[in-house]
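TICKET: design request
STATUS: open
ATTACHED STRUCTURE:
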């Protein structure tokens, strides 16, 4: 049985709906039909309350009078009146590239005029453009820009995110990016799971083989060394852009396996623009997660369902690049654990998970409960945190959003209007954002 700290830290009361997602403290993900059956508590007269202990852990879920009395007797420090709104778990963004310098607004015009993602990249733009700018930036500039992005993410309800390097492509800049994420994790109220993505593109003065060797023989050993010295504690995952003309399946497998041997979780870009068999390879080597998957094959779907690899789907990228949608319905129906991510990056400049959920419902044909599970419990599972976050249960961390709306679905339904709906954001039991 869980033991709780002696005093209570905060109480949230007058709640109409609590979207628990699951009420099972041991449930680490939902898949198949279960994704559509999220657990919701409801009280017509808003008589629901949640009590959080001094360590930021949810200790009780009950009614107002009972929990207010408990809070009073234990000198609860913070009290949040939900005023008849809803309480939902903090959102988890399963895929982001938030550390970079410069922008690519000029490329948006090129893409609108018909240039494909790879055409822009092959002409020296895309990731190459951002890499040049990011190499030139000092870490304080990158941290400042990340802070600006992080604040907007928090306001949009994100309390935890996966965050990649990948705009350095040389050892020095890749380490600089990972250090910036580490600093942000220490000082921002957001929680980061950092991903080493030195295999995001092939630098112009290199080739697939040389970059693969550099990553395996220099970059990964540097991360291992840093970790042994107590640094880069939030670097947890390894990523590769597994794509035709970038890192093909064999090099991707070598890099990912080297990362796995170094203790990193495999979480990579697969089958986005070309059906390469990335999903089959990822399932075979025990990937925790694979992203994009627009071109996944039926065999890839079956392999992912069997291996319990999470499919992290990215609606903003499909929308921006006018790609065909990934087969989200087939994936869910066949038992793949589906998560969502914003893919926030200079190509797809969207950091709002409520917008991502809306797009997933309309363009990927997911239901609102499925999109919500994908942005909470399942995204938390993709970064190894679903025992602690992603649902509202006694014993889980109090990462919460108070919604100014009578039904939780307003968070998804009000397209591009999350600022109207999100009233308070709570991270680890503390209010970190309140609408003025
Ligand atoms: O997930 N596909 C590769 N990586 C990113 C885009 C990065 C960029 O264009 O800067 C993605 O969409
Ligand atoms: Fe990406």
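STATUS: resolved
RESOLUTION: sequence designed for all positions
ATTACHED SEQUENCE:
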């Amino acid at each position: 049985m869980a033991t709780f700290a002696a005093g209570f830290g905060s109480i949230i009361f007058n709640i109409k709906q609590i979207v628990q997602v699951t009420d099972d403290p041991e449930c680490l993900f939902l898949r198949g039909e279960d994704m559509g059956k999220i657990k919701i508590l409801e009280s017509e007269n808003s008589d629901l309350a949640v009590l959080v202990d001094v360590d930021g852990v949810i200790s009780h879920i009950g009614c107002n009078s009972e929990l207010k009395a408990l809070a009073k007797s234990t000198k609860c420090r913070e009290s949040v009146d939900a005023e008849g709104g809803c309480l939902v778990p903090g959102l988890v963004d399963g895929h982001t590239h938030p550390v970079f310098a410069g922008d690519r607004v000029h490329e948006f015009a090129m893409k609108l005029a018909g240039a494909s993602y790879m055409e822009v990249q092959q002409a020296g733009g895309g990731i190459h453009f951002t890499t040049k700018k990011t190499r030139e930036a000092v870490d304080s500039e990158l941290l400042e820009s990340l802070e600006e992005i992080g604040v907007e993410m928090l306001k949009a309800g994100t309390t935890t995110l996966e965050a990649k390097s990948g705009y350095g492509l040389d050892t020095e800049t890749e380490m600089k990016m990972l250090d910036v994420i580490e600093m942000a994790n220490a000082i921002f109220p957001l929680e980061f799971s950092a991903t080493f993505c030195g295999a995001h593109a092939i630098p112009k003065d290199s080739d697939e083989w040389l970059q693969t060797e550099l990553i395996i023989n220099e970059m990964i050993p540097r991360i291992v060394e840093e970790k042994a010295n107590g640094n880069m504690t939030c670097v947890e995952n390894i990523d590769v852009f597994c794509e035709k003309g970038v890192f093909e399946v064999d090099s991707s497998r070598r890099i990912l396996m080297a990362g796995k041997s170094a203790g990193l979780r495999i979480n990579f870009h697969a089958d986005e623009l070309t059906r390469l068999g990335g999903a089959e390879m990822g399932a075979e080597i025990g990937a925790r997660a694979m992203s994009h998957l627009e071109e996944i094959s039926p065999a890839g779907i079956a392999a992912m369902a069997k291996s319990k690899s999470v499919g992290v789907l990215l609606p903003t990228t499909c929308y921006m690049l006018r790609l065909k949608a990934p087969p989200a319905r087939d994936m869910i129906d066949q038992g793949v654990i589906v998560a969502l991510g914003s893919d926030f990056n200079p190509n797809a400049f969207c950091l709002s998970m409520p917008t991502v959920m809306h797009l997933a419902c309309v363009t990927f044909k997911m239901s609102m409960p499925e999109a919500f599970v994908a942005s909470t419990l399942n995204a938390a599972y993709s970064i190894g945190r679903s025992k602690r976050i992603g649902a509202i249960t006694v014993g889980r961390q109090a990462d919460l959003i108070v919604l100014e709306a009578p039904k939780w679905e307003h968070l998804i339904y009000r397209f591009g209007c999350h600022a109207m709906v999100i009233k308070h954001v709570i991270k680890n039991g503390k209010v970190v954002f309140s609408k003025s």
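CLOSING REMARK: Residues 8-88+392-434 form a domain with the Urease, subunit C; domain 1 fold (CATH 2.30.40.10). The CA atoms of residues 216 and 255 lie 6 Å apart.
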